[in-house]
């Protein structure tokens, strides 16, 4: 018995790296998998339809069920086609992992409109395009699980990744809304912030300098299996960070109780006077488990 017996999973960007690891693990656990990947290099230029098919062939050779989809998920038609293939070939859409992405890193001062738009289109719009038809089906068919891929670049920030960080931060915001709207339909929403050594990240400074500390895609995949399986129960609206240096941990926005200004007026100087009630101290941040 597998953890995903009878389930159908749709995974974008599954022709290599993290998505490939998810697809193969899900298939071993009993799921039928729609393997989506436009293919091509990490900057989003070109395409290679063979990448998705190679993963499908490997899954089938191991006794699993899978079908390739090579649509561009940054378009409404492409997102719809991923869902349509799930229904056409397997009759259901129980799990969606939005994993597809590109990198076009530039410092903000050097950022171009073209690179900004392209990264936003693939990451943020792509997540919308694939999720909407799947969400609608889940809403009418008893629910499901959606995992949206964010990043510490979007949650905490990272030098040279203003376009990527903005897109990944937007995905986190989208997940928060979907968790609220999906709760009554039994649609569970997770956000993942992975850190792994893949072709997308192999030349980033933190991996070049310390490659042994990075997780492989196979080291991230068990966390995603946990999210989409019954092991995670009815949890929704949560963010898991998974990386070599930090391991597996929940990440969340913290909020102070705050200072309540009087109704009869207050000044900017009052914020200085009540700073201890408004701002987190370094001690409070450390006590919450995330020293920086």
UniProtKB/TrEMBL annotation:
Highest taxon of source: Bacteria
Read off the SMART domains from this record.
PKS_KR
UniProt entry keywords in alphabetical sequence: Oxidoreductase
InterPro entries reported in the protein's UniProt record:
KR_dom, NAD(P)-bd_dom_sf, Peroxisomal_Beta-Oxidation, Sc_DH/Rdtase_CS, SDR_fam
The Ketoreductase domain is annotated at 7-203
Task: State whether keyword Cytoplasm applies.
Answer: no
Q: Which GO terms describe its molecular function?
A: oxidoreductase activity
Protein family per UniProt: Belongs to the short-chain dehydrogenases/reductases (SDR) family.
Which PANTHER family does this one have?
DEHYDROGENASES, SHORT CHAIN, SCP2 DOMAIN-CONTAINING PROTEIN
Q: What is this protein called?
A: SDR family oxidoreductase
């Amino acid at each position: 018995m597998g953890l995903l017996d009878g389930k159908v999973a749709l995974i974008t960007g599954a022709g290599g790296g993290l998505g490939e690891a998810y697809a193969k693990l899900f298939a071993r656990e009993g799921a039928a998998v729609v393997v989506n990947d436009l293919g091509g290099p990490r900057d989003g230029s070109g395409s290679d339809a063979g990448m998705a098919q190679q993963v499908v062939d490997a899954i089938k050779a191991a006794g699993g069920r899978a079908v390739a989809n090579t649509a561009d998920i940054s378009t409404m038609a492409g997102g719809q086609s991923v869902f349509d293939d799930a229904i056409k070939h397997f009759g259901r859409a129980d799990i969606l992992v939005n994993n597809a992405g590109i990198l076009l890193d530039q410092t903000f001062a050097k950022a171009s409109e073209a690179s900004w738009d392209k990264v936003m289109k693939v990451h943020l719009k792509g997540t919308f395009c694939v999720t909407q038809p799947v969400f609608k089906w889940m809403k009418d068919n008893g629910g499901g699980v959606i995992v949206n891929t964010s990043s510490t670049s979007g949650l905490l920030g990272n030098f040279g990744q203003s376009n990527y960080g903005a897109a990944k931060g937007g995905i986190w915001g989208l997940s928060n809304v979907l968790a609220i709207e999906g709760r009554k339909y039994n649609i569970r929403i997770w956000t993942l912030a992975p850190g792994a050594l893949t072709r997308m990240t192999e030349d980033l400074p933190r991996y070049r300098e310390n490659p042994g500390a990075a997780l492989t895609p196979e080291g991230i995949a068990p966390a995603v299996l946990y999210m989409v399986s019954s092991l995670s129960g009815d949890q929704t609206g949560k963010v898991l960070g998974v990386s070599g240096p930090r391991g597996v941990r929940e990440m969340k926005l913290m909020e102070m109780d705050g200072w309540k200004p009087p109704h009869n007026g207050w000044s900017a100087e009052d914020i200085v006077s009540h700073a201890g009630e408004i701002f987190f101290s370094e001690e409070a941040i450390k006590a919450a488990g995330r020293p920086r």
